[in-house]
Amino acid sequence: QKEVEQNSGPLSVPEGAIASLNCTYSDRGSQSFFWYRQYSGKSPELIMFIYSNGDKEDGRFTAQLNKASQYVSLLIRDSQPSDSATYLCAAHSGYSTLTFGKGTMLLVSP
Amino acid sequence: GAVVSQHPSRVICKSGTSVKIECRSLDFQATTMFWYRQFPKQSLMLMATSNEGSKATYEQGVEKDKFLINHASLTLSTLTVTSAHPEDSSFYICSARTRETVNEKLFFGSGTQLSVL
User: If you measure CA to CA, which chain A residue comes closest to B91?
Assistant: First the structure.
């Protein structure tokens, strides 16, 4: 069974700090990985996706992928209170739709 | 990015009634739409995959006669919760697939909070 694991949190960081969100996946056939942000009571929105080993940067966000360790992470630099949300990691194996983790709640304090 | 419109955003209904939720892709053609359910503090759980012009594929444990899915056009899919009961109260989210060269992206509707009394 395909699984995506995330620490539920909450992860608390002060404003301006780097927030590090982690995710592991069980299906070695997974090819691409996604990070979604979900505010309470709202639908998820796509932040980034990554499919190659290494780092991918987009503004304040950096996604990191290590396929050998089956590990994905999302770094948020200069965290802002508006970044406070639940972050969902998802994996795609190509056979079906995405498999989501339960999400990590991030709290950024002013 | 691509826009997916979902409504209603919130529904309160009595037990035993049916509720229809609509999901539209506004600026692209969605050959495949997905319906998810999310209980509080839980992950998104895929309920069914809807392909335009064909029957939906339901995930294990999801009653196809209770959750009716229609995908009659490339821009519209509907989910009807028939004879809703309090245990059906949840956040329902649709998403549509837009495919790039090597990756799959999903764009989500705004979700529907269903409360069954």
Answer: A41
The H or E element containing residue A91 is strand A85-92
A93 Cβ under 8 Å from any chain B Cβ:
no
Q: Phi and psi (nearest 5°) for B14? A: -85, 150
Q: In one letter, which amino acid is A70?
A: Q
Q: What is the CA radius of gyration of chain A?
A: 13
The string of pLDDT tens digits covering residues B106-117 is: 788 999 999 999
Which residue from B22, B29, B17 is spatially nearest to B7, judged by alpha carbons? Answer: B22
Q: What are the pLDDT digits (tens) for A10-69?
A: 999 999 999 999 999 998 888 889 999 999 889 998 899 898 999 999 999 999 999 999
Q: Whole-angstrom Cα distance, residue B115 to residue B113?
A: 7
